[in-house]
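Case study.
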Amino acid sequence: MKKIPIETLRTFITDLWTAWGGRREDAALLADIYTGNSKRRMGHHDIHNLPQRIDAVKNGVIDPKAEITPVASYGAIESWDGHSGAGEISAMHIMKRACDLAEEHGIGFATVRHSNHYLSSAPYVCYAADRGFVGLILAKAGPTMGMPGQKGNLIGQSPMGYAFPTGLDPVMLDICLAYIAYEPLKLLADAGGSVPIHYGVDRDGNPTTSAAELLAGTKYPIGEHKGFGLALLSELLTGVFSYGAILDEGENDRPYRGMTHTAIALKTDALMDRETYRNRADELVKRLRARGEGLHIPGDGSWEAERKTEEAGVFQIEDDLLEKLNDCAKNAPYFTVPVL
Amino acid sequence: MKKIPIETLRTFITDLWTAWGGRREDAALLADIYTGNSKRRMGHHDIHNLPQRIDAVKNGVIDPKAEITPVASYGAIESWDGHSGAGEISAMHIMKRACDLAEEHGIGFATVRHSNHYLSSAPYVCYAADRGFVGLILAKAGPTMGMPGQKGNLIGQSPMGYAFPTGLDPVMLDICLAYIAYEPLKLLADAGGSVPIHYGVDRDGNPTTSAAELLAGTKYPIGEHKGFGLALLSELLTGVFSYGAILDEGENDRPYRGMTHTAIALKTDALMDRETYRNRADELVKRLRARGEGLHIPGDGSWEAERKTEEAGVFQIEDDLLEKLNDCAKNAPYFTVPVL
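After joint prediction, the assembly is written out as follows.
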């Protein structure tokens, strides 16, 4: 375990992405996104994921030089092509566009195809909330979720999230529509943990409470047909609206290769003045806190972790992660980045 | 049990609403909504609910003469005041507005406060899909849903639904965000049925598989904190954006009395031509059907029931429902409606 100052990691990520061929402004954005999620201690969805991104560049899955280009637009809605760039860059691009469109039309909708994994929803929806908008983002990936009565995986686990500003911390949800996402399930399985019986089935389709057996089997959507129906809406709004991939469409066949995302933003002071909006959004949170003692409002854990990290001023980086990051630094094709 | 021809019931409902003081055009719309849901055999959310609506008129909860008035608008988003009219009328009004706004801006968002129960999401989202739009509707009602670790009810069960057109039947989801809605739970409880253990707790906060004990206790949201987070988004988009009631705010205190709804529509041929959209939406459904044998696509059950009812040409009305409907007809204040 090594303590790395926040700004040191930010500079390291910026240099690393540039050294692997990325544009400087994309590198700065990636550094913001990875340090932001790391401050919130999102585990698998923070700095722990960066070596995988560099691997994806190495393997040609991500093109770090990709430029996002417009496909079609109509009033407050737009579609874009990510040209196999980093998912984080595409996702932030469409959220910015959704906010700009919402500034003009009250609501904005932007979708992108040929993208890649965007880490988690938090960075994009927090960006929107920081600008005073409600931000909602949906992602479509390959089928990793089943349904009771069905064999195997049918549909994506539909990562999604939203944030909205209040007078205090934003409310922020960052989830997928399976009972449990792949990454926390993997951690639980590695630790020999168990899961509630309704989370899914083992590889033979039998009920299980073993995280390891579920990992090898099929996860179910929240509320079964309800979560499945919501995941299907996500497929429509991302895959169909972006004219990108749907369900299991050829991972390697253009035009349907890659992941798709959709961002929606709403102007909070469109129908009332900003103060009225903030008072009402605050009232919503306050009334919930008053009803439930110790009730967890979406985002509570993230803001607490963020404050703790900022107080400490450093990240605690495990030795194996440090080694992976330093390998990425040493092997960069354009220039060598100083190791952490 | 009595067989009532479809058109006879439609005329009866139109006359009944008019005889209770409603405008003729509202009465025709209500008749469409109630016969439509009855064709789809939605049980508690069809003709079975009409006597409750008439009771609400009698008790002054619903004003059948209410006119919906504009509150605020900005580009593609609008808010309206339902002035305590029927929820069905308000909900269809905002969905129509959302579609009109989407025709102009690609996406449309309309919200209404001071509304009432809107029966179910199906009529409004089907209206949008029939016009070629994706339709999404959200409703906010009083807190009827809890959370693990918390006592009692915290938040509304968030009725919601969507529909989108394909080349064949629309895909249509009509759900709430509790594991089980009040009405099906009531039916199950009356029949002495059981529920999965994760659906909620009894009145003392203990786990239960008894539908009757759950009915007297607290229902949980789908996926616990995930469904709770989605319900909170619904509170924001309906209660806050309409400047209406949030959570448990004074059921009888204006300006926060009544229910709030929000409709969102998306133009399906904004980013691609109509044929391309339909082909891709069809492909989504076809690929799902190919992956899952006998897989239920949202709406399948409704379209099958609708076709069966239309073939039969009649509704089967139970004696006790018939008696209630005829009582409403006989006691109407403006004129007496011929009984069924």
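Observations recorded in class. Chain A has a mean pLDDT of 95. Chain A touches chain B through 77 residues (CB under 8 Å). We will return to this complex in the next lecture.
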